[in-house]
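# nightly structure sweep
# worker-07 picked up a monomer target from the shared queue
# config: single-sequence mode, recycle default, output format = structure tokens
# input follows
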Amino acid sequence: MIVEKLAALGAREKIWLAVAGVGLFAALVDRTAVEYTARQFRSLNTAVQKESERLAENQRVVRDGRLALDEYLGIRKFLAEMPAGADVVGRLKADIDELAGEAGLSILSIKHRETRASFGGYYKECFVEIEKFEAGMKELLTFLHCVSSSPKMLRVERLTLAPQSDGSRVSGAMTIGKIVVVGEVAGEPVDAATR
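# output follows
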């Protein structure tokens, strides 16, 4: 019945029917294959955009890390001039004795107090305690100035003073710390002078 009706159509009607069939087929393909492909492209575009943002963030972190490393390498020689291992405390005591001798501070008793790892283990702070010292106020201030301006990264952690009976001198105790950069090999302090 449909075939007979199609055969009875004129040439113009057959052409319009074919055009309508092609249009219907195109609409069907658009709704199925093209829409599916467009969804896939949108999904891929979103994924590419997210990965591009992650890449930009990672590149920023790497760039900042390189800047931080360059800055660290630039100042590393100022952070430590210490030998490795057990010599750290002995060298620290020797540095303090040298500064005390230059300033005129008389150290009566000194001992190693503690070593603390800091900042994720990248550096250590070594401390010595001057249990008893004697000096005039001028000598004490000179010593404190020498400690704070020393390129050996020393700092006074704690200071206790008591005037002596004659009033011209003071005695007391203090704790002095030093920052030591920890090297990459075996967790030993780095001798920055050799780097």
